[in-house]
Every structure is written in C-alpha cells, then in structure tokens.
User: Fold Recombination protein RecR from Sandarakinorhabdus glacialis.
Amino acid sequence: MTQALARLPGLGPRSARRAVLHLIKKRETALVPLVAALQAVERNLVTCAVCGNVDTRDPCGVCTDPRRDTASLCVVEEVADLWALDRARLFAGRYHVLGGRLSALDGVRPEDLAVDALVARIAEGGFAEVVLAMNATLEGQTTMHYVAERLAGSGVRVMQLAQGLPVGGELDYLDEGTLALALRARRLVE
Amino acid sequence: MTQALARLPGLGPRSARRAVLHLIKKRETALVPLVAALQAVERNLVTCAVCGNVDTRDPCGVCTDPRRDTASLCVVEEVADLWALDRARLFAGRYHVLGGRLSALDGVRPEDLAVDALVARIAEGGFAEVVLAMNATLEGQTTMHYVAERLAGSGVRVMQLAQGLPVGGELDYLDEGTLALALRARRLVE
Assistant:
C-alpha cells in the first residue's frame, strides 16, 4: 500500500508511510470510506468519446450541457487543463482533450494525440472558432503550431491564448522572455 | 551598523549581524572597499533630470545614447523597472520613471509622481508612441489608466503591455484571473 501511495504525484515515500499509518489506525473512519470512494470512481468514471473529458457519463456533462456555446471549441493538452478552464466557467463553449503534447524527448508523436479526432470533429461542421489553449511551454507551443497547421483550410478561426504579463506580475520579477512578449504584443490602451 | 544593514531589503536582523561580523573580521579586504564603493556611489550617482533614471551623469546614458529610437517612450513605475526592461535591451527607445504608483493605502497621489513632467515632455513633441509599462498589479493598472487619461488628446499612440500567459506558464498552475485574461485577449494563430 505504501508503494502504491508513494507513486501518487505530490506524495513521497515518507508522506506515503505516514498516510498508511493514519489509514491503518483509523480503519473504520478513513480506510473503509477511501476504499469505497476509489471503488466508486473505478466503477463509474468513463472517458467521454466526444471530447476526452473524464466524467461519470459518456458523453460527458460538458458535451451535453445545452447552455454552452456550440460554435466555439477549446483544445487543451490534458483533462486537468479542461478542469482548470472550467473551474471558474472561464470558457463557455465545448472542449477537446488531446491527451498530451508533442515531445521528441518523451517519444510523443502526432498519432499519439487525439488530433485526427479533432480534425474529424471540425470537419463535421458547426464550429466557427477553435481556441488552442496549450501551455506556454516549448512543447505546448510546438503542439499548438502543429494543430493549427492541421486545421488550416478547415474554415474555422484558429485562435491562441494571449501571452504577456500574468495578473499581479511585476516587471522587476518577471523573466526576460515574458517581458519581451509583453512588449512585442503591446496594444492600445482602451 | 547592524541596524542600518537590517533596513536593507532582503536582509533581516539575523543576516545583518552575520554581515557585520564578517565585515569586522575582514576589515581590510571587506569593510574598507565597501565603504569606498558606497562613498563613490554617494558622490557620483545622480538622478537624470530628463527621465528620472539613476546614473553617474545627468542626462543619463540612456537619454544621451544616439542609437536609441527617439520616437518611442516607455513609462515605468520605478528605476528598477527601467533596469529590468533595459537588461536585455528589450526596449530600444527612451524611458520616463514615474517614481512610484498611485496608492490610496500608502497615500501616493498623482502630484507625488512625475506625471506633469511626462505630460510636458510629450507636449514638446517628437514622440509618436508611449508604452505604459506598469506592473500588472491593481495599483499599477490604476496608475496606467490615470496616465493614459492625462495623455489623451496629446496626439501620441498610448500603448499598454500585453497581458496573458507568462513564458513557461501551464494552465493547471495559473490563477483564474490570468486564464480569464489570456482567453479574453485570444488572437488568431499566425
């Protein structure tokens, strides 16, 4: 059990041992409910065949929500990114999870990501805009440009997230790359 | 000496005591050169009457550099921001240091900042563009909008820095404010 817990992100061997001791000591109030919760997840969670989101139903709650804008599609690397953007209802359209990012180092090629599925989904029509919400990392941006190329000529507006100063960012503490981007992409004060 | 050192940003009472002991122990190799360096700064450093930069001459090296673009002016809160932007030669024009930011909490009003001097400098003509490079903090943005209002009708393009994802930013780790900005200011992939 210790080894299985230590494999979780954020838990090392030391905190895993402490968690195990806690679970053994509080068998009825901690261990039994945790097992039940994990079993429920294992039984009930499915990957949405439409967008790749993880939910208790397929198609997922986001794909079937009638209040969402059906003309706007947001493409993300991972389910965690979908949840981050949807946490505060920042994006009101639909999503598409690629399932990772292109990486020569990790051996992730285009066919390992849900890019063909995305192209097929766009070809079906109905979307006017695709927002490529990739991370501002080297691999994220490589993936973004690859997906943009695959969508060229599809007739949808292919958008990317703005880059620049983050909220609360102070010039003196930001890296030069971000300062350069913020200066280069400067815009008129409204 | 300990108290004077402890007042420096980044030095607490404990590290100030350690610094003092080090300086006393290495009187000839540490204390004497430090005193000389501080005296030289005290004697030689002046504030540039044109832009507010701190340099060994007035007008400063930035203001007198003939290779710089004389049509573009970058307005910053502090000298530290000027140095941050100029470290990597990110901005090739001239600067104007306000000397702070508007703050109701700290009692900083418009007349405490070099805004009148900025308006006068712009009125002299020659600048086509003013970049308001304020921090992306609440006070920085308040200052930015105040300065923009004061420059309205002056005939120059008043620009602001781009806001959005910083370089290396990952969606799952960024705050909702930054994600919202990055989504709202999305742009076409080139």
Remarks:
- The mean pLDDT of chain B is 93.
- The longest helix of chain B spans residues 27-44.
